[in-house]
Design brief:
Layout (H helix, E strand, L loop, with lengths): L8 E5 L6 E5 L9 E7 L2 E5 L3 E4 L6 E6 L8 E6 L19 H23 L3 E2 L10 E2 L20 H24 L4 H18 L9 H8 L3 H8 L19 E4 L8 E3 L11 H7 L42 E6 L22 E6 L19 E5 L3
Antiparallel strand pairs: 1-7, 2-6, 3-4, 3-7, 5-6, 8-9, 10-14, 11-14, 12-13
Helix pairs in contact: 2-3
Length: 388
């Protein structure tokens, strides 16, 4: 055969029911040439049993069949990784010619081995190709490096947990130094010197140049908890901002599907509110009376367009139907004493008359319909943002 591709690994995600996972166009000559891993939360577990491999020595590939389906979310990785051995025995001189099949299988396995090595190298830390001298930096290709031993020498890699531990110890040492200085009556100048030394240690831990922190910064470090630190900064926690009111300006009117307004909102029911409690809303409305939107529709302010002129913000408008009329044509029969009198007729067909005069007059129809003119609608509770 020929080795026409460099595919030597497959990855699939378990769904809790699938047991067969194929590896098309990846030829596996021996069962031992295929390794299988289960990966959960970046933790690899080599599988040495519980599955069978089909399609051996088949150029079209084969499949791995598990005796029980891998769990949901488990990543199933299949890698072709032939043993680093040469098991093809070719005839020695005088022992007869080697078959082309034997030679080709040997070359195929050699190619598979090279592909396996190549994939391993690609997944390793490597110097860049342009780094001829071998004195540059290693490229992790954006991946994290785990399972690093604690640093001992000056040039050792420092991990996140070691850095946090070192910085925490440095801050604790500085606070202890200030406490000891206070109890021993040491001057404030000496105490600040201890703290400055602590800051230098912390800067060295993160690989940064020493920086000068202000008195305000030192005081901020000394705060006992996050709430006290926010109070010193004049800041608030995001958790203290009501989710329903975040980012919505005071005076904003919203349609609400509940019966109780969320924190920071009031009903638009025409009631009077306290200007001292809601000063911003008082400024927006120009007074302390809430708009009464119960049973009302909202309409955009004309604002100079000329469609609904003469209106001001929050002004009410009564219901109306657009002006119109209806024309009714009546036929009058000659000989009738009054022109406004209809000729009664109870027979069938068309009543014969000797002379007919026509005229147009306006008549009023009987009333029908409801108590107002309205479109189809859904009832909601209008609320207004009252405070930040």
């Amino acid at each position: 055969m020929t080795v026409s591709n460099n595919v030597n690994r497959f990855s699939s995600i378990g769904d809790g029911s699938t047991t067969v996972f194929s590896h098309p166009n990846m030829r596996i000559d021996e069962v031992t040439d295929l390794v299988v891993y289960f990966v959960v939360d970046d933790q690899e577990t080599l599988q040495i049993s519980g599955y069978t491999v089909s399609g051996l020595a088949d150029d079209a590939g084969g499949a791995v069949t598990f005796s029980s389906a891998p769990a949901v979310g488990v990543r199933i990785v299949r890698i072709r990784q032939p043993a680093l051995m040469q098991l093809t025995s070719l005839p020695t001189v005088g022992g007869g010619p080697a078959s082309m099949g034997q030679i080709e299988r040997g070359l195929d396995k050699l190619t598979h081995l090279l592909q396996s090595v190549s994939q391993t190298v690609v997944r390793s830390l490597n110097l860049r190709p342009s780094d001829i001298e071998g004195q540059g930096t290693y490229d992790a290709n954006g991946n994290r490096i785990t399972n690093v031993a604690p640093p001992l020498a000056d040039g050792d890699l420092v991990t996140k947990i070691h850095l946090e531990s070192y910085c925490g110890d440095a801050v604790s040492a500085g606070q202890l130094a200030l406490s000891s200085a206070s109890s021993a009556g040491v001057s404030a100048t000496q105490a600040e010197g201890y703290r400055d030394e602590t800051q230098i240690l912390r800067d060295e831990a993160v690989g940064a140049q020493p920086i000068d922190i202000t008195t305000f910064g030192r005081d901020l470090v000394d705060e006992a908890n996050a709430a006290d630190a926010r109070a010193k900064l004049g800041a608030i926690s995001l958790a203290d901002i009501p989710p329903a009111a975040a980012g919505i300006p005071v005076g904003t009117i919203l349609a609400f599907a509940g019966s109780t307004p969320p924190t920071g909102f009031l009903r638009c029911d025409g009631n009077v509110f306290d200007a001292g409690t809601y000063p911003e809303l008082n400024t927006v409305l120009g007074g302390t009376t809430l708009p009464d939107l119960r049973g009302e529709f909202l309409r955009g302010l004309d604002d100079g367009r000329g469609v609904d002129s003469g209106r001001s913000l929050l002004s009410a408008q009564g219901q109306a139907a657009q002006s119109h009329n209806h024309t009714v044509s009546d036929a009058y029969v000659s000989g009738v004493s009054t022109w406004n009198q209809w000729v009664p007729y109870s027979g069938s067909g068309v009543k014969p008359v000797t002379a007919v005069n026509t005229a147009t007059t306006t008549r009023t129809t009987s009333s029908s319909g409801g108590s107002e003119t309205r479109p189809r609608n859904i009832a909601v509770l209008y609320i207004i943002r009252a405070s930040t």
